C-alpha cells in the first residue's frame, strides 16, 4: 500500500513542488494539503495520513503546536510528522522534536532525500541526518548542560551497553551502523534501543538524541 502523505506549508508553490516530486514515486500518495497548523490538524483527522510533511512558520498555528496536537499524549492515529526547516535551521526545530516530530529535513534537500526521509519516518524510524543534527545542536550548545552538571538519575537505569547505544543514536547512526560499530546484530541493537526508550520514557530515536545532548551525556561536536 502507498504511504499516505499530507503536505503542510503556507506557500502554495512549495506544496505544488513537493506534490510533483512525491507523486512521481509509486509508493507515495499525496492525500491532501494544508496552509497552516489548524488546517493540518483538521486534515489529519479527516484523511488519516501516514506522514505529515510539516512547515514550522505558518499563520494561525505554527508547525510546533500542530505537531504537538497531532502526535501528543492520547493520540493513537498513525500520523508521523517530518518537519521542514530552512537552511539556516529554524530556532523552533528543537521544540518540534520535543513535541513529537519524528525528524526534520532541510527545505532545499534533494528530491531523493525528501522521498527517502518520508519512507524512513513512515516505517517508524527517525530521520536524523548526522550533519544537520550536529549543526542544530551546535547552535544550541550554550543552552545545553555543561560536563560538570550532575547526570540525570534516569541515566543510571541504563546498562553500560545501553548507554553506548544511546550515544551512537545521538550521533545519528542507524541500527545497521550501530550494529557494525559494536559488532552485534541489528536485532540486538533494536532491543537495546527499545530498552533505552522505555527506561527513559521517550517516544522515539529523535527524542533519545535530544535527551542525550540535553542531559550532557553527549556534547556537540564530540565523537
Automatic annotation (TrEMBL):
Q: Which SUPFAM superfamilies match?
A: C-terminal effector domain of the bipartite response regulators, CheY-like
Q: Which GO terms describe its biological process?
A: phosphorelay signal transduction system; regulation of DNA-templated transcription
**Modification 4-aspartylphosphate, positions:** 55
Q: Which CDD domains match?
A: LuxR_C_like, REC_NarL-like
- What is this protein's record name? DNA-binding response regulator
Q: Which segments constitute the HTH luxR-type domain? A: 151-216
UniProt-recorded Gene Ontology molecular function terms: DNA binding
- Annotated TM spans: none
Q: Which UniProt keywords apply?
A: DNA-binding, Phosphoprotein, Transcription, Transcription regulation
Asked if the keyword rRNA-binding belongs to this entry, the reply reads no
Output the superkingdom of the source species. Answer: Bacteria
Q: Where does the Response regulatory domain lie?
A: 4-122
Q: Which intervals of the chain form a coiled coil?
A: none
Amino acid at each position: 500500500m502507498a504511504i499516505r502523505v499530507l503536505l503542510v506549508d503556507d506557500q502554495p508553490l512549495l506544496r505544488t513542488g513537493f506534490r510533483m516530486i512525491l507523486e512521481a514515486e509509486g509508493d507515495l500518495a499525496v492525500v491532501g494539503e494544508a496552509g497552516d497548523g489548524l488546517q493540518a490538524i483538521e486534515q489529519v483527522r479527516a484523511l488519516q495520513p501516514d506522514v505529515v510533511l510539516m512547515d514550522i512558520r505558518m499563520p494561525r498555528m505554527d508547525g510546533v503546536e500542530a505537531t504537538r496536537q497531532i502526535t501528543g499524549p492520547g493520540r493513537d492515529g498513525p500520523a508521523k510528522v517530518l518537519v521542514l526547516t530552512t537552511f539556516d535551521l529554524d530556532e523552533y526545530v528543537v521544540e518540534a522534536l520535543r513535541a513529537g516530530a519524528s525528524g526534520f529535513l532541510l527545505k532545499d534537500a534533494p528530491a531523493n532525500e525528501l522521498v527517502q526521509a518520508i519512507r524512513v519516518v513512515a516505517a517508524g524510524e527517525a530521520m536524523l541526518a548526522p550533519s544537520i543534527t550536529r549543526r542544530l545542536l551546535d547552535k544550541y550548545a550554550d543552552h545545553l548542560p555543561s560536563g560538570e552538571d550532575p547526570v540525570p538519575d534516569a541515566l543510571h537505569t541504563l546498562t553500560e551497553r545501553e548507554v553506548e547505544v544511546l550515544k551512537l543514536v545521538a550521533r545519528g547512526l542507524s541500527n545497521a551502523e550501530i550494529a557494525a560499530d559494536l559488532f552485534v546484530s541489528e536485532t540486538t541493537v533494536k532491543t537495546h534501543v527499545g530498552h533505552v526508550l522505555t527506561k527513559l520514557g521517550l517516544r522515539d530515536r529523535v527524542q533519545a538524541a535530544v535527551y542525550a545532548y540535553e542531559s550532557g551525556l553527549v556534547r556537540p561536536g564530540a565523537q
